[in-house]
Design a protein that fits this description.
The protein is mainly alpha-helical. It is built from 14 helices and no strands.
Amino acid sequence: MSSRTFGRVVSYTVLILIGLVGIAPFLYLLILSFKSRIDVLTVPPTLHLDWAQIKSNYGNVIHDQGYLTFIENSVIVTGISTLIALVLGVPAAYAFSRLRFRGSDAWASTILSFRFMPPVAVAIPIFLMIQYLGLTNSYLGLILPYVAFSLPLVVWIMIGFFDEIPREIDEAAMVDGLTRPFVLLRVLLPLARPGMLVAATFGVIFIWNEFLVGLYIINSQGHETIPIAASSLLTVESPIDWNIAATVGILTVIPILMFSMLIQRYIVRGITAGAVH
């Protein structure tokens, strides 16, 4: 066996192992969601599946516990928050990339540092501000802090993408009579579309899974997102139904997994662009 062949075998073996490690928890969660409460605790575990039990688990979560409403809430809050973050973050990133002003690099680094702040450090101040504005138990009360959390990451990723686009394109468009806002809208946005998708992906993943801030702001079922609603499965009055908890986990993961798969080809390029910046 040549060294090149051996290297390929090792590479593929490592990739397969990484893939198995990554998919194994999801498959195990899926199998648990197909079982009854008693079968979940059976040792050794079995692969026996009962369609009636599967229907019961998912029917319980979707209809009896109203998880379609929670999914709808998550989709609304995540979609609007991500869209606003892009609308605000893309022009800001363009300004940092193209308009050099005093302290621009320092400001860009400062904006990114805000993203490193853990939500637990600001959850209470955010709750007090939202309460003062009278926005508790509302979509807007969730959207405002989520935009604030997502905006720094959007700006930083888009700076890297705009820096990859030659400045000569801007100059040629301006020679043709376009102003800077129209250069951004008509020329650069189509070129930076992969970066916007990457920024949207990371923003969606964070907002979809965010729990702590939402727990402070929302205390009515009508506006609960999936992570907040899922926390109700943990109660001191009754033991956890692991099959129901697994079903909730599957319903939580599937939408974000489908979204990520649709635009996965842009993710590596986006990470690379940010690293180059």
